[in-house]
Write a structure and sequence with these properties.
With about 325 residues, this protein is α/β, with parallel strands linked by helices. The chain is globular. Helix 5 packs antiparallel against helix 10 and helix 7 crosses helix 8. It has a six-stranded mixed β-sheet, with helices on both faces. The protein has a five-stranded parallel β-sheet with strand order 2-1-3-4-5, with helices on both faces. It is about 35% helix and about 15% strand. It has two domains: about 160 residues, 3-Layer(aba) Sandwich (Rossmann fold); about 140 residues, Rossmann fold.
């Protein structure tokens, strides 16, 4: 992924007949394993990609697919790698094309018998029936983690360090901020983007500056932020993965992305010869099991009761449909 003009486009969930068909898809049925290839522009240990990789390994372990992958693929090389995997007989190709949207769709058009499930800031296109899109719509859990952050700040200042201001990141930050403000309407936010998906040193230095400016809780959208929080003895909120084991005195809570519902639906569609162009973003919602708040672990008993009560209330309402977290893809700003 890279900072491109695509940032100005907004990615909304489409209510289409194709999506309706997807919502009716059941669990993965017993069938011959399909060949699946993953193409990633960053190392597989990077937060976002690690969740896709984990889901693929899980599906492989249960016998639903044969999985291979390439990591650290540049945007300029992405289309070539897609073609190589398509030529190699892979039935489903997964990855993230945020910085190679046009090229990726051109490749998909050349291989109509191959299913492509790609992280994208754009919608699906009915004219390209074998190209489905997804993104990590984990705003539900991000909102809940914001409630906890709002209850844990003493200074009333929270620092937020992100990669790029694309919809995927923006919506999570806005949800987090909304949760924090519900708990404490006087909170001020410092928001900064480092212009990279994987630059822990830069993220760390950005976080240090926020701490010097009074932030005592940090939103760690990128690796490196929790390191700064740990060194300075303040708190952090994680994103996409649970890193509390590595930062037991620092990471209070994390919004977790579970890619399994997304991938399992795609596998079932490929096995059932029913894969179509659709928006798989809905499978990241809490109601679909696509996101959850990580266990409090070392912070059990250290979070104010009022915050935990509000988290429990909102979580139940989100799952029942009584409460919806606003999806705001606009770039957030400091306050």
């Amino acid at each position: 992924m890279t900072n491109t003009t695509y940032f100005n486009r907004r990615f909304f969930l489409a209510t289409t007949a194709a999506t309706s068909l997807l919502l009716g898809a059941g669990s993965v049925a017993a069938a011959e394993p399909i060949k699946v290839a993953g193409i990633y522009t960053v190392p597989v240990e990077q937060q976002w990609v690690s969740r896709i990789h984990k889901a693929a390994l899980t599906a492989q372990e249960r016998g639903d697919l044969e999985y291979t992958f390439s990591e650290n693929v540049s945007n300029t090389d992405y289309a070539r790698v897609m073609r190589e995997y398509a030529e190699a007989g892979n039935t489903l190709i997964i990855g993230e094309v945020f910085g190679a949207e046009q090229e990726a769709r051109e490749v998909a058009a050349d291989y109509p018998s191959v299913a492509f499930l790609m992280g994208s800031s754009f919608k699906e296109d009915a004219a390209l029936p074998n190209f489905a899109v997804f993104d990590n719509y984990i705003q539900d859990a991000s909102y809940l983690s914001g409630i906890i952050a709002g209850s844990m700040t003493s200074s009333g200042k929270i620092g937020m360090v992100g990669g790029f201001p694309i919809p995927e990141v923006n919506r999570l930050m806005h949800a987090f901020m909304a949760g924090a403000l519900e708990m404490n309407p006087d909170i001020q936010f410092q928001v900064s983007f480092i212009g990279s998906w994987f630059d822990p040193p830069k993220a760390k230095e950005t976080a240090f500056a926020m701490i010097e400016n009074g932030a005592d809780v940090l939103y760690a959208e990128r690796f490196g932020v929790s390191d700064a929080a740990k060194e300075k003895g303040i708190l952090a909120i994680g994103n996409v993965i649970d890193t509390q084991a590595d930062y037991p005195d620092t990471v209070v809570a994390s919004a977790i992305w579970n890619f399994e519902p997304t991938l399992d639906t795609a596998i079932a569609a490929v096995q059932g010869d029913s894969f179509v162009a659709a928006d798989y973003g809905v499978y990241s919602f809490m109601s679909q099991g696509g996101t959850e708040l990580a266990p409090l672990g070392t912070f059990e008993g250290k979070i104010p009761a009022a915050a935990l009560e509000l988290v429990a209330k909102r979580e139940a309402e989100i799952k029942s449909g009584a409460f919806s977290v606003t999806i705001n893809d606009e770039e957030p700003s400091s306050s």
